[in-house]
Structure formats: structure tokens, C-alpha cells
Amino acid sequence: MFGKKVAAGRTAASTEGDVVVLLIGMRINHFWAVHHWVPVLLAMPRMLRELSRAPERGLLSHVLLTASPRTYYVVQYWESKEKLYAYAHAPETFHHRAWAIINRKEKAGKVRQHVGLWHEAYVVPEGSYESIYADMPAFGLAAAHGQVPVERRGRSAKERFAHRSGKVTR
What we know:
This protein is an alpha+beta fold. The protein has helices spanning 34-52, 81-89, 94-107, 141-145, 157-162, and strands at 7-13, 19-28, 59-66, 71-78, 115-124, 133-136, 147-149. The strands form 2 sheets. Strands 3-4-2-5 form a 4-stranded antiparallel beta sheet. It has a 3-stranded antiparallel beta sheet with strand order 6-1-7.
């Protein structure tokens, strides 16, 4: 977040409609099996670069995180679940090639539980999320959808949950 402009005071994400969130990550099960987990670790930044060069694919924003020295993941915010599906299944993408390699290794019995992969995808309906940021640059949902003064969404969490834009993106 170095160099990002801090929004003074309290803000909220200027999200309208439903929110699509993908959590995707890896776990290093055996540190010594470097040749198994390094390619997996390097694949995600390559996919994120690919997506940043093609904003029409629908990735709005992402945050790289770590849960432990073994577990790394990305929180991604997407325009729609349809765009997420389309990227995941597009044969010309790096994601497609990476999964083809994993599937071939699995069928050949060459996957030995050295690295774990996981993802969780959510479509969060409007009225089922709220946000507040205090003296923060755009982060998370606000980085994906923009920031507004918190009062535009409500002064309390209850009011922010109740906020309706009139836009539904299911």
C-alpha cells in the first residue's frame, strides 16, 4: 500500500448490487519438495498479470495474503460470476493451461500431496455485506468498487447492511 492515497476519515465501499468474491490459494505441505510448490506459487501472479492486461475479463481487484509460512492466498473481487466462470474455462488462458498440467500429473500418479490447492467462491447479495474503512487507502471491496464517505451508506453497520442501490447483478 505504499504510495496509495489515504482517504481521511471514515469511508465505505461504493458497491452497488451483488458482490462476487473468490478466495483462492495454496498450502505447502512439504517444504523440501520445492520443485512441486514453486511452480504453483508462481502461477497465481502470472494469472493476475494476465487478468490485469484484460480488464474486460472482469477481475476488479485483488489482495495477496498469507495465512502462515505454508499457506498463501488471494482475495479476488469480480464483476460477475459469469465472468469468473468464463475466465476459468477459457482455453486460451494461463489458468486453463495450468489446470491441464495439474490434471495430467494427477492422472499419471505424479501428484504426491506436496502442495495443496483450494478455492471458495461467493456471490454475496446486496444487503448481505457492509464495509467501513478509517483513514485507509482503497482496500478490499473499496479497491474493487471505489470509496464513498461512510454517511452515504449509513452511520451504523445496520444502516449500511440495509443500503440498497437498486442494482442487482445476479
